[in-house]
Design a protein that fits this description.
Chain lengths: ~400, ~350
């Protein structure tokens, strides 16, 4: 055979669907054991518990035949937890005893620290993640992390400005009457502006994470856009409004069936105790509806974001991801989980967490060009477990 | 007996099939990696992060063993790995034993329940008493004056009692307060100035704000008059309220909730939030009942000092209670009507007061 004339073989592309091999029953055990040991140790077990939980999920997350591995050191996680708890305690005491200056200083400190905390948490998490012996790394500099945090700063300045302006305006405008549509318009514009800034912040961090992470000498890449983030956020607001309207309609129907609405009005004026009770129940139900409507909307947004992230992410020239998660299927799962969690007073949560993680993970397919053996390891450095503890507490966590 | 595994050395993602041998040693199993009959690596027990087994029956399809700087092992027969580990004398963690053995789990569960009960019964009240000692009187007074000002904006209005009657009752109040002895003060050195305020509203009621402010409503005085009871009845109620002040019950309640919230938050973490909230609420109610009993006991003792009978106070409580019950059936909102509302068992309380001593008082 003449090797010279053979056409160069194009590197084969192999596809692997990610797989979660754990199940809710076993994770329920992990969760319950964590809980009991936390009670027995008065909370000192918390960092161990977090590590067990992450280890469970990683060990059952199978990527191309090999599970992920979490190697975060216990001592670092423990020190991080103690530091975090100390800061949290200082803040709660300052807030509870109304030491305004102290709590404002701590609040401002949080704001200034957030970019550093976020970047450290990603660094720790990626450096502690291993697959086929190769660690991840996060290559963003502190400068990049702070530059990506501009929406947070704008949000803070805007909030402070509005507070200051409102205080000034209230004293200056006393006596003059403002048209209500201007007031409502202003409030609405403020809320929309804040939401857009928050979405921009989330987009910035997502992009920074996905483009500056690396694995075995291959840099991450991502081609999602801010427009898509804005679109699914707006759609989520739409879902919220629709669900809330539907729930209100249901409540109104219930009130109609329980007693004529007109009679309800008359009873209210007469201060009939039964009518008052009914009215109170209706009010509570409405409040609950406002709260409940957020569930499907948040789930919808989470799923759309997940699809956007994992359909546009890749690793150097060797790997790319595709995601076929169906948002409404995820919303149905979340609604079921929320209801079950309510009914079981929270004990359904382990099953909720595993089922949602499984649905999301197994919607992702990894396409690899040139085989699984080509990644090169790098020197591992671990840091930032403190930031990881905080990231977990404020909800940046990858696993719910 | 060896276990087959893939070794990833951390320098590349290439897998290398190896045979793993585990042998018992004093500090735990020694791990040896071999390929083709040649030993590649020998690690002491401390150089290996032994993976935890999460279930006695179910194992994942494959398992990673962290060799720290030497990379990782992927074992595709986890059951064989765990067998080899236990043969080589690996000591498992408590968490793993709880996870895989029912008896260990049940034992830790028992300890946890006992600890929770002790925390609730002794830990929280003790910690709350220690913290309460540190709360300054000025802070209590600041809170109280703000709370009273808030209530004056809606719930309460100026008293309609004639000034002369008010002066009469204030005199009795001052005389009562003067009879308090040092031994009766639960907090040594805590002697807030006691002031009595008259207000209209909130039905027949009296309540103590932290820091020495006691508020009595016109409704209470009227209820005593309507039942033809002597002023001793009102003095009894005031003694009860002084008890709340001296025991710093409001402050304690706030602190107890704080201690419980911190404690439960720490211990339960991401556990069922509903469970945590429900338990906080229930304990608040339970602690409150305890406070009422404490204030009653204080009142009985103080009334004895002042040579005032306790029976009229008991009669007054019963009269208010039955009046509230009657109004309740007529549909009026009765939740604010009286100081009896936080006491589920007014009858038992009244009987105890009528007897002039309390079995539950220490």
């Amino acid at each position: 055979m003449d090797l010279e004339t053979a056409p160069p073989a194009a590197p084969a592309i192999e596809s692997y669907r990610l797989n979660f091999s754990g199940d809710g029953g076993v994770y329920f055990g992990v969760w319950l054991v964590n809980l009991l040991l936390m009670v027995v140790t008065l909370g000192l077990f918390t960092p161990f518990a977090r590590r067990r939980k992450i280890k469970y999920f990683y060990a059952h997350t199978v990527v191309a035949g090999s599970p992920l591995e979490f190697t975060g050191g216990l001592r670092r996680m423990f020190i991080g937890y103690l530091l975090f708890f100390g800061l949290y305690l200082a803040y709660s005491i300052a807030a509870q005893t109304e030491q305004k200056i102290a709590s404002a200083a701590i609040g401002l400190g949080w704001l200034l620290l957030t970019p550093w905390l976020w970047a450290s948490a990603q660094r720790f998490r990626l450096a502690s993640t291993r697959w086929r012996g190769i660690r991840g790394q996060f290559g963003a500099s502190w400068g990049e992390a702070y530059a990506a945090s501009w929406p947070l700063l704008v949000l803070f300045l805007l909030g402070a400005g509005i507070g200051f302006g409102a205080a000034l305006g209230a004293s200056a405008m006393r006596g003059t009457s403002l048209r209500p549509q201007f007031v409502f318009g202003g409030i609405l514009a403020g809320i929309v502006g804040m939401l857009v800034l928050l979405v921009r912040q989330e987009f910035n961090y997502t992009r920074l994470y996905l483009t500056r992470c690396g694995f075995g000498g291959q840099a991450g890449r991502w081609k999602g856009g801010f427009g898509a983030f804005l679109r699914f956020s707006a759609a989520a607001v739409g879902v919220y409004v629709a669900v809330a309207a539907a729930l209100f309609a249901l409540i109104a129907l219930g009130a109609y069936l329980a007693g004529d609405l007109a009679r309800l009005g008359a009873g209210l004026r007469a201060k009939n105790p039964h009518t008052l009770m009914l009215a109170a129940a209706l009010g509570l139900a409405s409040l609950f509806a406002v709260y409940l409507a957020a569930g499907p909307a948040l789930a919808y947004r989470e799923a759309r974001k997940f699809v956007l992230v994992w359909s546009n992410a890749g690793l150097g020239g060797v790997a790319r991801f595709r995601c076929d998660l169906r948002p409404w299927r995820f919303v149905r799962l979340r609604v079921k989980n929320l209801l079950m969690t309510l009914i079981t007073l929270g004990f359904w949560r382990p099953f909720a967490v595993t089922s949602e993680y499984k649905m999301k993970l197994e919607s992702v397919t990894l396409h690899v060009k040139g085989g699984l053996d080509q990644l090169a390891g790098q020197l591992a450095r671990q840091q930032g477990a403190f930031a990881d503890a905080i990231a977990d507490a404020v909800g940046f966590d990858v696993i719910g | 007996m060896g276990v087959a595994a893939l070794w990833f050395d951390g320098r590349s993602s290439r897998a290398r099939p190896v045979d793993v041998q585990l042998e018992a040693s004093p500090g735990g199993p020694m791990l040896t990696l071999a390929a083709g009959g040649v030993d590649l690596l020998r690690l002491a027990p401390g150089q290996v992060v032994w993976p935890e087994r999460f279930s006695a029956r179910r194992s994942p399809a494959s398992l990673n063993v962290d060799l720290r700087d030497h990379g990782t092992l992927q074992v595709d027969d986890p059951a064989a790995w765990h067998r080899a580990c236990s043969t080589a004398g690996l000591r498992t963690s408590l968490a793993e034993r709880m996870q895989t053995r029912w008896r260990v789990f049940a034992a830790v569960m028992g300890v946890a329940l006992a600890l929770l009960a002790a925390f609730y019964r002794w830990g929280t009240p003790w910690a709350a008493a220690q913290v309460t000692r540190l709360v300054p009187l000025a802070w209590e007074q600041k809170i109280s004056s703000r709370a009273l000002a808030d209530m004056d904006h809606g719930l309460l209005s100026a008293s309609q009692l004639p000034p002369q009657r008010q002066a009469e009752l204030r005199e009795r109040f001052a005389a009562l307060a003067a009879r308090m002895q040092a031994g009766q003060r639960p907090y040594a050195g805590y002697a807030p100035p006691l002031t009595l305020h008259f207000r209209k509203g909130l039905g027949a009621n009296a309540f103590a704000l932290p820091g020495g402010t006691i508020v009595m409503t016109d409704g209470l005085v009227e209820a005593a008059t309507k039942s033809a009871l002597p002023d001793d009845a009102i003095v009894g109620v005031l003694a009860h309220e002084i008890g709340h002040v001296m025991y710093r019950h409001t402050t304690r309640l706030v602190v107890e909730q704080g201690v419980l919230n911190v404690g439960l938050g720490l211990a339960l973490g991401d556990m069922s939030w509903m469970f945590a909230h429900a338990s906080t609420l229930l304990t608040a109610l339970a602690y409150r009942r305890g406070h009422e009993t404490q204030a009653d006991c204080f009142a009985i003792a103080l009334l004895q000092q002042a040579k005032v009978p306790a029976r009229p106070m008991a009669d007054l409580l019963l009269a208010i209670d039955s009046a509230a019950a009657q109004r309740g059936t007529q549909g009026e909102d009765s939740s604010w009507t009286s100081i009896v509302s936080s006491h589920p068992d007014t009858l038992a309380r009244a009987r105890q007061l009528q007897a002039g001593h309390a079995g539950t008082c220490s």
